[in-house]
């Protein structure tokens, strides 16, 4: 275990253990053991496991809002790709939140509200990008509610694709992040007009 | 609590509690309490909580394969709709499996294999339907791998949409199943050719 101040070491160990074993399986005693401190020392820094989870969620949330700003001018396909890539890397870093999402938010109500805002921001960013692409004539939809549905589908894919990949594969898949990006790009593709569509499909294929 | 034989009452109570509180939060003592029997009586019927989960999974799996047969002739849009509706009702009935999926399959390896087969069947059915629609000239894709991606997207949506809806809404949403069906139909829509596309969009809009 790398050196560092004790609260940081507790948080780093908790993140790894939550990601690998799931929140429910990890107790504060396990964490103290892993960091090689006494349970009393851990309780000196954190009231309980919920507080550790909340502190990790704070970090995730701050990084999320740093990464996901709603664009106000049309991004090109490479920018969308890069941005999706950063997003999935972040989700992967804090994957315990996503893998145990339903029960995490039902046990800790304050996280529920905050996570709903995060999904809201994902939908909003998806809609902003689609509207910009439509206004620029790069994207075509037959009805405005197709953009709404597409943005929700993108947000859901960004929320659960890594869990889906995790459940589907017998061993951890190092290319899961790149494949997640490709999957989102492929959602957008059928609405694009050539040559943007061809360009995006070629890009997506590289990452599958 | 309705009468009935004890194992069935244990399974029914477990299903309700798992769905509402999550597997990790429910102990065999809680279940025995709810059924109004002694823990010893519960252990006479089931070795442990894992065995209860496995028995519930058996029921879910049998119903799943009854519902989801891979079609060999082109279904019409209404048939696809009905079939999706039955699928989401079943998922809703056994939603603890889906809400706690990642950790359920990591704790019980035999369920992991069985659940992977279930997702495989969803992808297979999605691909079969898309290929039939394409062969009939109702659906158009620019490249064969679009069908593969679309089928995976359908399978993922069928796996996680209810969890997504659950996390997003503050209270239980009685129309979540109908909205799930609409969301899947909207995935297929951009690939359809009019009038099938218009017909499907109109149908999807009724259920949103």
Text of the CATH class of the largest domain in chain A: Mainly Alpha
Give the SSE order of chain A as H and E letters: HHHHHHHHHHH
Mean pLDDT of chain A: 87
Instruction: Sketch the major β-sheet of chain A.
Output: none
What oligomeric state is this?
Answer: homodimer
Low-confidence stretches of chain A: none
Tell me the helix content of chain A.
over 70%
* CATH topology description of the largest domain in chain A: Tetracycline Repressor, domain 2
Give the terminus-to-terminus CA distance of chain A: 35 Å
Percentage beta strand of chain A: under 5%
Radius of gyration of CA atoms of chain A, rounded to a whole number = 19 Å
Tell me the name of the CATH homologous superfamily of the largest domain in chain A. Tetracycline Repressor, domain 2
Could you give a short description of this structure?
With 208 residues, chain A is mainly alpha-helical. The first copy, chain A, contains eleven helices and no strands. The two termini of chain A are 35 Å apart.
């Amino acid at each position: 275990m790398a050196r560092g101040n004790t609260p940081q070491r507790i948080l780093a160990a908790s993140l790894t253990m939550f990601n690998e074993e799931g929140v429910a399986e990890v107790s504060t005693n396990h964490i103290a053991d892993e960091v090689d401190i006494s349970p009393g020392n851990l309780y000196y820094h954190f009231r309980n496991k919920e507080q550790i989870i909340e502190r990790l969620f704070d970090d995730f949330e701050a990084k999320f809002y740093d990464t996901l700003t709603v664009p106000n001018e049309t991004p090109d396909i490479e920018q969308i790709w890069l941005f999706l890539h950063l997003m999935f890397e972040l989700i992967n870093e804090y994957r315990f939140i996503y893998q145990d999402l339903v029960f995490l938010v039902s046990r800790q109500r304050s996280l529920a509200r905050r996570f709903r805002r995060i999904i809201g921001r994902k939908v909003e960013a998806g809609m902003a990008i689609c509207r910009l692409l439509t206004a620029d004539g790069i994207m075509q939809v037959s009805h405005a509610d197709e953009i709404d549905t597409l943005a929700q589908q993108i947000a859901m894919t960004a929320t659960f694709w890594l869990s889906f990949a995790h459940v589907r594969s017998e061993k951890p898949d190092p290319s899961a992040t790149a494949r997640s990006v490709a999957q989102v790009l492929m959602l957008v593709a059928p609405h694009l007009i050539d040559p943007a569509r061809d360009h995006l499909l070629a890009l997506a294929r590289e990452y599958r």
